[in-house]
Amino acid sequence: MPTESPAGNDVPRRAQVDLHGLFDYLADRFGFTNAQRYVEQIEKTCLSLGTMPNRGTERSDLRPGLRIMGFRRRVTIAFRVKGDSVSILRILYGGRSVDLAFPQLED
After folding, report:
1. Are 86 and 9 in contact (CB under 8 A)?
2. Cα–Cα dist 56/45, whole Å
3. What are the beta bridge partners of residue 71?
4. C-alpha to C-alpha distance for 57 and 35, rounded to whole angstroms
5. What angle do CA 24, 79, 57 make, to 5 degrees?
6. CA-CA distance, 104 to 106, in Å (whole number)?
7. Segment 29-84, tens digit of pLDDT
8. Cα–Cα distance between 18 and 96 in angstroms, integer?
9. All domains of the chain, ordered by start, with CATH?
10. What's the whole-number average pLDDT of the chain?
């Protein structure tokens, strides 16, 4: 997954690690080709946020500007919109808790 897309989407290292880990997990269970297709579809969904960034559910209770959206009922994409750019913060698979992935900030 690229670290920055032409559409202005930014993919920090943590989200890249999530995606690579997901690929490895899926490849072990469902084969390389199926894992590659699934991850490519996640990437395409992430890139599409550049044209419609305010999708999903706002979760500013966890991080200012944090939004989350589901992908095929198994993946949660966590991202933040700033101006014309979108930062993909985390890609969580299989019911991993968004609350645990983004512990609340101390006041």
Report:
1. yes
2. 12
3. 75
4. 27
5. 115
6. 6
7. 999 999 999 999 999 999 999 888 889 999 988 988 899 999 998 999 999 998 88
8. 11
9. 9-96 (3.30.2310.20)
10. 85
In the predicted structure, residue 7 carries a pLDDT above the cut 90: no
Strands 85-93 and 66-71: unpaired
In whole angstroms, what is the distance from residue 83 CA to residue 48 CA? Answer: 16
| Mean pLDDT for the stretch of residues 1-25 | 73
- For residue 8, pLDDT over 60 is answered with no
User: What tens digit of pLDDT does each residue of 13-22 get?
Assistant: 889 999 999 9
Encode burial over 7-16: b for 16+ CB neighbours within 10 A, e otherwise: ebbbbeeebe
